[in-house]
Design a protein that fits this description.
The protein is mainly beta and 455 residues long. The protein has 3 domains: 132 residues, Sandwich (Jelly Rolls), CATH 2.60.120.290; 37 residues, Low-density Lipoprotein Receptor (Irregular), CATH 4.10.400.10; 255 residues, Trypsin-like serine proteases (Thrombin, subunit H), CATH 2.40.10. Helices cover 7% and strands 33% of the residues. It contains 5 helices and 28 strands. The strands form 6 sheets. It has a 7-stranded mixed β-sheet, with no helix packed on it. A 6-stranded antiparallel β-barrel has the order 14-16-17-20-19-18. The protein is globular, with a radius of gyration of 24 Å. The N terminus is likely disordered. One of its GO terms (molecular function) is serine-type endopeptidase activity.
């Protein structure tokens, strides 16, 4: 049965007062109103947002002004890429932002004279809903005053802090368009790879899909690859910091996406919160392995160029790459980290770790060839959880597998989450199977080093 949307036009009349309400199955248009409030049904009475709801409002600014939205209260179910409940802000048919969670979003300033606010809820969990104040304005920035600089994430800082050599914006946008100074290269030379400032609990062996969280900031190279426009649950793949301007991930994570669609978050433990020390960067370009093919994922490797470079801190540090000639022996104990799905409980927003042991491919991971017959095993790493029922899951793709090689105390990157198991690739249940298959860093080292020298 096709659902019809009723369109109601509301003019500014004395009898009609704010707050305006979203109605299920209706599209409301508001014209000639300079300011007001928009809320979900029953919000002021303490009622939850209805399940199975779909309604929208288009607000038209008078006299060619723009529309500013301020979120006075906000509570929608948190889900990866807002796949459950979501509020979408659209202009001219283009979705500018998709919102969910119980965090209050930053203000929104439309690019045009009209913005559509569209709410969709699923039939599962209830949330409180929201109250949004809309205002017609001629401001060109959410910061208003010319003495303030608008960061890319819509935070406001004094304009005097722009191009001062310090990252005052979480996303580095206050320095990203400035002249690159020598201090960024000096930071690279003075930072030891694979050496966390916070010691990890390497005795924890619970699987990523259901286990204990990692010690916050004990894996400081862990990166979250995110889709721009989703807030705040934009994570969809993992990665690892190789240099202050380069992150490595799985090629299948970014294949087909434009760099402008991507952002990378580093220094995070709770991936939907901006913890102190979090740094967010744009992706200016990326390189896929020259032999990568989506149908077999043998060379499932990509390197992303960050803009501007990150600032090395206690929470943001690079991982080591294997040295020339270094090997990964069978039975080496390694650790995987990620924010992927947790079995039976949805997405994990706290970083998890899992202890995995390197195994012979034919013995532990050969079943993957039933769904990836063209896979060249010499370019992969096979690793298993000794409990034999765990491993990475959806959302962990591209995330790092690290080991301490040759009795070193430093952590070396040996793989990125790529294939999972045959079960993961053919069924909804994650983490179950004989072993997980990773894109090998050592066999792809030559290409990775070449990419680092070019990007």
């Amino acid at each position: 049965m096709r659902c019809s949307i009723l369109v109601i036009l509301v003019a500014a009349v004395a009898a009609q007062r704010s707050p305006w309400k979203l109605w299920n199955g209706m599209h409301l248009r508001i014209r000639g109103v300079a300011s007001g409030e928009l809320e979900t049904p029953g919000f002021t009475r303490g009622q939850s947002t209805p399940n199975g709801f779909q309604g929208s409002v288009t607000i038209h600014a008078p006299n060619g002004s723009r529309i500013r939205l301020d979120f006075e209260d906000f509570d929608l179910e948190t889900s990866a890429q807002c796949s459950a409940d979501r509020l979408m802000l659209q202009e001219n048919g283009v979705t500018r932002r998709t919102l969910c969670s119980n965090l209050r979003p930053p203000p929104y300033l439309s690019r045009s004279s009209a913005v559509t606010v569209s709410l969709t809820t699923d039939r599962m969990k209830n949330s409180r809903g929201f109250v949004i104040r809309f205002t017609a304005t001629r401001d060109s920035s959410v910061c208003g005053r010319t003495s303030l600089f608008e960061c890319d994430n819509l935070a406001c800082i004094p304009r005097t802090r722009v191009c001062d050599g310090q990252f005052d914006c979480v996303d580095g946008s206050d320095e990203g368009r400035c002249r690159v100074d020598q201090w960024s290269q000096q930071l690279v030379n003075s930072t030891e790879c694979g050496s966390p400032n916070v010691e990890s609990d390497v005795e924890v062996s619970d699987r990523i899909i259901a286990g204990e969280e990692a010690v916050p900031h004990s894996w400081p190279w862990q990166a979250s690859i995110q889709l721009k426009g989703f807030w705040p649950a934009a994570h969809f793949c993992g990665g690892a910091l190789l240099r202050n301007d380069l992150v490595i991930t799985a090629a299948h994570c970014v294949d087909g996406l434009h760099p402008n669609e991507l952002v990378v978050k580093l220094g995070s433990h709770n991936v939907v919160h901006d913890d102190p020390g979090v740094q967010v960067r744009r992706v200016s370009t990326y390189a896929l392995h020259s032999d990568y093919q989506s149908h077999d994922l043998t060379h499932d490797v990509a390197v992303l160029k960050l803009s501007p470079p990150v600032n090395y801190t206690a929470h943001v540090r690079p991982v080591c790459l294997p040295r020339l000639g270094q090997q990964l022996p069978v039975n080496t104990a390694c650790y995987a980290t990620g924010w992927g799905n947790t079995r039976g409980s949805g997405h994990s927003f706290l970083l998890k770790q899992a202890r995995l042991v390197v195994r012979d491919f034919d013995q532990a991971c050969g079943s993957i060839l039933s769904v990836q017959p063209n896979l060249r095993k010499n370019y992969t790493v096979c690793a298993v959880d000794e409990s034999n029922d765990a491993g990475p899951c959806h959302g962990d793709s591209g995330g790092p597998l690290v080991c301490r090689l040759n009795r070193s105390s430093n952590w070396t990157l040996v793989g990125m989450t790529s294939q999972g198991t045959a079960v993961t690739m053919t069924k909804a249940l994650c983490g179950m199977g004989t072993g997980t298959v990773w894109s090998g860093v050592i066999p792809n080292r030559k290409w990775i080093k070449a990419a680092l020298s070019i990007l």
